[in-house]
Amino acid sequence: MIHLITEVSRLTFIIIFAIYTYDCFAALRVERRGDDSTRLYGRQKAMTYLFLVNGNLLLFLNTEEPKIFIMMLAEIIFVVIAMIIYNKIYESASRAVVNNMCMLLSIGFIMLTRLNQAKALRQLLFACVALIITCFIPLFIGNVKLIKGLKLFYIVAGILLLGIVAVAGGTTYGAKINISVGGIAIQPSEFVKILMVLFIACMLYKDTSRKQVFTTVILCCILILILAYSRDLGNAMIFFLTMLVMVYATTQKPVYLLGGAGLFAVAALVGYAAFAHVRTRVIAWKDPLSVVDGAGYQISQSLFAIGSGGWFGTGLYQGMPKRIPVVETDFIFSAISEELGGLFALCLIFICIANFLMFFNIALTIKNRFYKIIAIGLGALYASQVFTTLGGVTKFIPSTGVTLPLISYGGSSLMATMLMFAMIEGLYQYRGEKEEIYETETTRYRQNR
User: Which alpha helices (DSSP H) does 252-327 contain, by range?
Assistant: First the structure.
């Protein structure tokens, strides 16, 4: 009986998610035109709740543990409260963005419960804490003078936090990425990403002279070099790509884009020559089966999982995702592909792409240049992390050990991503219109004098 229900659920998961994905791209058209589509957003919410109910019922049938129902109730309550809070605090913000955030979180809750129930519970608690923190984001976003005034704080705090990790951080799979505070492992680089975006926006929103650009790049490269020293090369690449996009967006000069691409190529060659584990990962990327008993084991198991799932998946508890090392964090996409199917995984990729497009659509609607640059930076940051994660697990690029935003297990990553989504909502609501008018009038007054 359970097997029959699992077989049926393979289709229901894909149908629910396919409907949601279609509505996700329909929401892009609606928000671009400025239309109100309550029915569309309501259908997105319904699909999220159906996904949670469908997933948790299947989890219960396979485990027969009553606490699954408690988790389901807690997850549904969390999603309801999150949507209410965002709709109240960000009244004129993008409803599609918060819907996508809740759907991606729901996928993470279901898959983590399947893989490790203790980690799923902690992930839900992290999400609750992050939701409380994001309630205060509008106070920060609305105070433009405060944001601009903390320019030096962003870069100094970033250097100090990453420096502490480089010196005293814990080593995980050869890289120093976290510090322990009160028994809780914190990964500062997840939050420093946002600080770097704010710093670049503060530096370049008015002055894009060559000197200012070089100063900004050099200071940001200090962050990247510290990450490289800590062997956190995945995050180093995300930092660099985000910086490159923001510099090009603010200057509109292809020479910086070409120069950045050249610098990235040189850095990759230096990293290959300097770090043995980089050479090992490149070998595993080129031919994982040749080193399947060693460095290629993880990526090989990832590819086996993705391939064995086919288009429709094996069904929850019918696959073997636990054979993949650190599947809850770096390789959760492979577990999703195996048990929920290739079609589901493709829809997931499309939703991540839709998020990226929404971020940039929001940036285009913002009149204030400073806020526009922040929105572009956050969009580039999100896109870089998704690309780095998915590219690593599918052998498109060497594995980097980066989490999939909102889905992979990890308190720091989850909180930082929810903060990023809240900032986008705040930027969309505030838009900096009053500040833009004030700056324009001030400029005219000075010119008349």
Answer: 254-274, 276-286, 297-309
